[in-house]
Structure formats: structure tokens, C-alpha cells
């Protein structure tokens, strides 16, 4: 089991290194960023942050609170990007 995990980690590292070397990693990040904006994901999360702040009050919300609140929603399957 440890050997398989080690091989997986090595493979991920090799792929990541190749993506960085070829510039493909940055291109993929930009493509993903554009798709997230295009589908409204960013605007939906921004609106959710505003709702949380409105409900709890600006004085009672920290950045950590917002991150804890929106992370599950942002990672949720309710957003279709592709």
C-alpha cells in the first residue's frame, strides 16, 4: 500500500513538473479561471459571501468565517463548469 502511494506521489510530481516546464500548468489555470467566470461560479460565491455578511453582520464575520462558509459550496457539485 505504501509503495503504491509513493508511486502515485512520484507520478503526480513528475506530471506537475512537466506541466510547469512546458507552461501548460499556467495555461490550464487560466482556462479554468475563465470557465469559472463564464459559468457564473465566481459571481455566485461572491453573492453567497454577501448573504453571510448580511445575516451575521459585518462586525461579526471574519475572513476565516467566510472561507469556512463558502468552501463547501464552492467545491460542491451544484456548479457545472464544463
From TrEMBL:
Subcellular location: Nucleus, Nucleoplasm
Pfam entry (one): EnY2
GO cellular component, one term: nucleoplasm
The UniProt record lists the keyword Transmembrane: no
Keyword Cell wall biogenesis/degradation recorded: no
GO molecular function, one term: transcription coactivator activity
Keyword field: Activator, Chromatin regulator, mRNA transport, Nucleus, Protein transport, Transcription, Transcription regulation, Translocation, Transport
GO biological process terms held by the UniProt record: chromatin organization; mRNA export from nucleus; protein transport; transcription elongation by RNA polymerase II
Main location: nucleus
Subunit structure: Component of the nuclear pore complex (NPC)-associated TREX-2 complex (transcription and export complex 2), composed of at least ENY2, GANP, PCID2, DSS1, and either centrin CETN2 or CETN3. TREX-2 contains 2 ENY2 chains. The TREX-2 complex interacts with the nucleoporin NUP153. Component of some SAGA transcription coactivator-HAT complexes, at least composed of ATXN7, ATXN7L3, ENY2, GCN5L2, SUPT3H, TAF10, TRRAP and USP22. Within the SAGA complex, ENY2, ATXN7, ATXN7L3, and USP22 form an additional subcomplex of SAGA called the DUB module (deubiquitination module).
Functional summary from the UniProt entry: Involved in mRNA export coupled transcription activation by association with both the TREX-2 and the SAGA complexes. The transcription regulatory histone acetylation (HAT) complex SAGA is a multiprotein complex that activates transcription by remodeling chromatin and mediating histone acetylation and deubiquitination. Within the SAGA complex, participates in a subcomplex that specifically deubiquitinates both histones H2A and H2B. The SAGA complex is recruited to specific gene promoters by activators such as MYC, where it is required for transcription.
Family membership: Belongs to the ENY2 family.
Protein name: Transcription and mRNA export factor ENY2
UniProt source species: Macaca nemestrina
Amino acid at each position: 500500500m505504501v509503495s503504491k502511494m509513493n508511486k502515485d506521489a512520484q507520478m503526480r510530481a513528475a506530471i506537475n513538473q512537466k506541466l510547469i516546464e512546458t507552461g501548460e500548468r499556467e495555461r490550464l489555470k487560466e482556462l479554468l479561471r475563465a470557465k469559472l467566470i463564464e459559468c457564473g461560479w465566481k459571481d455566485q460565491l461572491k453573492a453567497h459571501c454577501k448573504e453571510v455578511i448580511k445575516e451575521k453582520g459585518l462586525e461579526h464575520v471574519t475572513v476565516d468565517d467566510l472561507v469556512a462558509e463558502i468552501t463547501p459550496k464552492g467545491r460542491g457539485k451544484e456548479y457545472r463548469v464544463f
